[in-house]
Structure to design on (320 residues):
């Protein structure tokens, strides 16, 4: 008797785990993903070992640090400074180079959907980096949006024609879903999103950091080694919500939201604005790796209590 009731209990708890799993499962641009909470590029993803740890902590997807053709040491320190509502960083894209990273990836078992982020100074550099990385990852993210690396990133991501060309040259050469990560440092993010879609992007990631600066009133000099940097964290969350809302309205391809998500409410807000999944960057540093399980559990309870599926929630704020 005891044995059979114990096994019943085991079965029912297994069923609950399966139900949890299924409710949060989603698909973005043909990629199946166990839950919509994804590690953003640049935080914990400098090595594949870091990505593995984040995957084990419950992220449905993980994104590598942005990788270029050659190793880069990044900007002089200080390269991160805490400001009201978040952080300013000017890391300057330090990375071991895409070929070295690919070697390191081969020895790692990452139990989450894996996005590889690349940058370049020209369409050709983007294309070569993406081609080298694509066989090792599930999806490619183009960093068209770094605000603090001269000639890289947002210098490219503010020009719709360049964005379309870069996306187009890569989309026809790789057989993995291609995501364009956009900068909010533009007059109208919808134009850049449209250009990426026209170039053949399978999805958009929005947003990268906002341009910012902090000045030390004692030394009377900019604090960051690079003088200016990119603002992340709660301060940029409303900008992310508006960007995702606008992109969702204008585009047919899915949008992955990013920007200042710390709490379950922040996560839901981006989904209601139109995000099919949400990336977490700064909150991994401020709240620790438990943030992935916390956000998923909040989302699960929110959906369960309203008898909604995740797809019911995506873009729901547009219905009014
Ligand atoms: C320290 C740091 C490094 C980052 N490095 C990258 C990067 O290499 N590539 C990239 O596309 N975004 C990078 N980002 C931007 C994040 O991926 C994310 O888009 C942004 O920080 C907004 O999300 P958050 O407010 O949750 O951090 C970085 C952000 C931080 C804070």
């Amino acid at each position: 008797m005891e044995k059979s009731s114990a096994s019943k209990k085991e079965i029912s708890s297994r069923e609950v785990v399966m139900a949890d799993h299924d409710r949060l499962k989603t698909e973005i641009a043909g990629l199946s993903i166990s839950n919509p909470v994804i590690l953003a590029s640049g935080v914990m993803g400098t090595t594949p070992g870091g990505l593995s740890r984040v995957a084990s902590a419950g992220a449905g997807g993980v994104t590598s640090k942005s990788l270029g053709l050659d190793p880069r040491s990044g900007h002089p320190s200080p390269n991160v400074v805490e400001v009201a509502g978040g952080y300013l960083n000017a890391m300057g894209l330090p990375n071991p180079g895409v070929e070295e990273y690919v070697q390191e990836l081969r020895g790692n078992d990452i139990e989450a959907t894996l996005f590889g982020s690349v940058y370049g100074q020209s369409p050709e550099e983007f294309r070569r980096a993406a081609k080298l990385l694509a066989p090792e990852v599930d999806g490619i993210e183009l960093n068209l949006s770094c605000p603090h690396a001269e000639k890289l990133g947002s210098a490219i991501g503010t020009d719709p024609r360049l964005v379309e060309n870069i996306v187009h040259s890569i989309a026809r050469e790789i057989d993995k879903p291609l995501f364009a990560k956009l900068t909010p440092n533009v007059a109208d993010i919808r134009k850049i999103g449209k250009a990426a879609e026209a170039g053949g992007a399978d999805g958009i990631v929005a947003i990268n950091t906002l341009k910012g600066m902090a000045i030390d009133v004692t030394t009377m000099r900019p604090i960051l080694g690079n003088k200016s940097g990119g603002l992340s964290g709660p301060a940029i969350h409303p900008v992310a919500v508006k960007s995702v809302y606008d992109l969702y309205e204008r585009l047919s391809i899915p949008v992955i939201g990013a920007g200042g998500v710390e709490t379950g409410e922040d996560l839901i807000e981006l989904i209601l604005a139109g995000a099919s999944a949400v990336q977490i960057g700064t909150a991994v540093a401020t709240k620790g790796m438990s943030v992935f399980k916390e956000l998923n559990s909040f989302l699960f309870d929110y959906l369960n209590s309203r008898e909604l599926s995740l797809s019911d929630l995506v873009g729901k704020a547009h219905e009014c």
Notes: The pocket of flavin mononucleotide is lined by residues 40-43, 65-66, 80, 87, 89, 91, 93, 117, 143, 146, 181, 208-209, 232-233, 236, 258-261, 280-283 (CB under 6 Å). Confidence is low (pLDDT under 50) at residues 1-19. The two ends are 55 Å apart (CA to CA). The CA atoms of residues 178 and 202 lie 5 Å apart.
